[in-house]
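Many introductory courses stop at the sequence. We go one step further.
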Amino acid sequence: MVQKIRVFTRSLGCPKNLVDTETILGGLGQVYEPVEDISRSQVVLINTCAFIRPAVEESLDVIFSTHQEIKELEKRPLLVVTGCLPARYGPGLSLEIPEVDVFTGIKDQAELPGLILKKLGLPSEGSRSWRKVSTAPGYAYLKISEGCNNRCSFCTIPSIRGRHKSRPLDEVIAEAGHLLAMGVRELIVVAQDSTAYGRDLGYKHGLAELTKELSGLSGLDRLRLMYLYPSGLSQKLLESMARIRGPLVPYFDVPFQHSHPDILRKMGRPFREDPEIIIRRIRQIFPETAIRSTLITGYPGESEEHFQHLLSFVKKNRLQHLGVFPYHPEEGTRAAGFPGQIPDQVKAKRVKKIMLTQKKISRSLLKSFEGQYLDVLVDEPHAEWPGLYTGRTWFQAPEVDGITYVSGDDVRPGNVIRAKIQETRDYDLVALQD
């Protein structure tokens, strides 16, 4: 009988981090046993985020609070910390936080399962398996590359995760096939810059080729592409996607970050032209489309005129989904030393203004779906209301967008059901199975 290792996991940050966590757990193979009660665990694994200051603070809070939870247990579990925090701050972190038993950065994560087993006195030979998917049963993230070659002046990612490195096409397709064999209905492609996929491997049209291959896989209901840099969304790429269609949903996650050319130039963005060029290009080729984006306000030197330009951009283009963040001066980035740093209270007011505008836009766009029938991929039961479930339509990505509340006789996690939209809210839908 295989001896099990009870593992309690906390994965912080983005979906790319979650894939890393799932891969580490897969490396433990048959000995891995997940537990939700930390007092029963033999290993506590924390995968950290350190992209911006609030993420660093959250990671440190989780490490220290977790240590408080386990330090008095009769059998204290092994405390393992990995991810962006140790990758950003280096080996010295272990001296500053001696409560942690094992620290590893991102580059050493492949060796982490073996190290854990060794610490517990167990053999690691032949233990590895496919990653342990931890999302709702209907969907999974598919990570296609690591790192980033863009050098935006505000961003810590290249220094944390290194240069862009694509996974070979056959490796990605094999993992996708495995996920579909498990019953996954929606694959969500993630990377730091998905449009850069394959360039380092010599693929001429890497993302287009990958999308075509994935779309042909049996059992795939939805294929969603995230993190599409505007600089990579050429007319040719979009036209190739339009020809593929099938399970590929017309959903475009494009991080514009700002609208004014002065600020985009200071940001060092690879695309410094008017973002409306990309929006028009997408909507021309995909008349029915959902565009989501992220914006940064309060960037060094952002004048009131620059901000009003950004606010007008939001009002005019009416994007389906939008996330807005105040600029954080990150240690080690060029922008942290720029003149014209904006006071925090000004940043907060600007974020609030944009989000109040976006709330009205979202409410108006969703109102148009009232009375329509849409396919809903069911994710999980509602925590408080028996018989009610949460799910998503084609224009809702998990975690970052709104959700659809749905009920009906055949509504079960992992099912795709046809439902009539009964009610719309600011960001969410309410539906009843047809």
